[in-house]
């Protein structure tokens, strides 16, 4: 079986971390990751050339997010992921739950809005198109929890527990499309919850936490279902090559354990990010209130004191 052009899968030796991390580029993801890093770097350079600042932490976060995609798609992990359910599950969890969070903390849309030049009156350039997309009805729909949470859940159950997964695994294009789908679903799920970029759906911080907790348990249930199954549930991994030295059920059990355990990682990262965002948001609001008070000479406080005085006068 030669899905990705890196050799016959039946000849793969038993999996080890060292073998899994060997460089084995998938052209689509290699080019996409390099392009993402170049465009982001261009945006940061453009801001600095005109004297604007951009947080280094955002640049580091975005780069790490892109590199995690490359880690699971441009190494032998991608090769082993074609024949080992457990390795595929590592790819799925990273590209759908870790990479999106790191990319979103890098605020790529905000960077694009600040770096792209305006096209001028009556013209539509890349920046104007991006603004139109952000304000479109389509974006309001795909970032609403009524869409993101069911899609997040369906990416597990409707994919792995139906023949769709086996169909996609039969071709290189299907496998790449599936991984792109995982990344896209992760981005639209986490964007309204903890993304730094502007978006049409921005609930309060408590509601964001509720949205997070609404989706995460289903990953744990999915993992438990895989671990408790008494037979292979995905046909694509029902007959692993003998050279790997594993059984289908043992491999599936490991995949379930990975899905179950990994759901805790993004939950912790997102909660930490939300707490910091909430804190800094309160700090910014306090500074805005202080500046407003300085501008109007505490007129609001004076008016309130006058109101209290009038009430007291009426009581006498």
Description:
It contains 15 helices and no strands. It is mostly helical.
A few lines on this structure:
This protein has helices at residues 17-20, 27-49, 56-73, 76-80, 85-105, 108-115, 126-134, 137-142, 145-160, 164-168, 172-194, 205-228, 248-262, 264-296, 299-315.
Radius of gyration: 25 Å
Secondary structure class reads mainly alpha
Content of β-strand: under 5%
Roughly what is the average pLDDT, rounded to an integer?
Answer: 85
Quantity of strands, as a count = 0
Low-pLDDT runs of 5+ residues are 1-7
Order of helices and strands: HHHHHHHHHHHHHHH
Give the CA-based shape. Answer: globular
State the major sheet. Answer: none
Question: Kindly, what is the distance between the CA atoms of the first and last residues, rounded to a whole number of angstroms?
Answer: 94 Å
Instruction: Estimate percent helicity.
Output: over 70%
**Tally of separate helices:** 15
């Amino acid at each position: 079986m030669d899905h990705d052009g890196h050799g016959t899968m039946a000849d793969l030796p038993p999996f080890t971390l060292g073998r899994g991390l060997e460089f084995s580029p998938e052209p689509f993801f290699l080019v996409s990751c390099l392009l993402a890093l170049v465009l982001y770097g261009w945006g940061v350079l453009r801001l600095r050339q005109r004297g604007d600042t951009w947080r280094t932490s955002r640049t580091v976060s975005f780069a790490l997010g892109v590199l995690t995609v490359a880690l699971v798609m441009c190494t032998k992990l991608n090769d082993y992921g074609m024949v080992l359910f457990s390795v595929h599950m590592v790819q799925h969890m990273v590209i759908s739950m870790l990479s999106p969070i790191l990319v979103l903390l890098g605020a790529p849309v905000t960077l694009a809005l600040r770096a792209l030049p305006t096209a001028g009156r009556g013209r539509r350039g890349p920046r104007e198109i991006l603004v139109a997309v952000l304000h479109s009805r389509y974006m309001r729909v795909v970032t609403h929890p009524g869409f993101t949470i069911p899609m997040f859940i369906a990416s597990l159950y409707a994919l792995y527990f139906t023949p769709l997964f086996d169909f996609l695994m039969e071709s290189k294009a299907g496998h790449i499309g599936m991984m792109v789908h995982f990344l896209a679903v992760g981005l639209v799920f986490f964007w309204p919850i903890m993304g730094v970029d502007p978006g049409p759906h921005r609930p309060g911080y408590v509601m964001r936490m509720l949205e997070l907790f609404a989706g995460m348990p289903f990953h744990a249930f999915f993992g438990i279902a895989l671990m408790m199954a008494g037979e292979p549930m995905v046909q694509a991994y029902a007959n692993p090559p003998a050279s790997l030295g594993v059984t289908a059920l043992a491999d599936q059990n490991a995949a379930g354990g990975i899905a179950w355990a990994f759901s805790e990682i993004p939950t912790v990262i997102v909660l930490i990010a939300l707490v910091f965002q909430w804190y800094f948001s309160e700090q910014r609001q306090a500074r805005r209130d202080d500046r407003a008070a300085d501008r109007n000479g505490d007129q609001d406080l004076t008016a309130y004191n006058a109101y209290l005085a009038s009430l007291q006068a009426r009581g006498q």
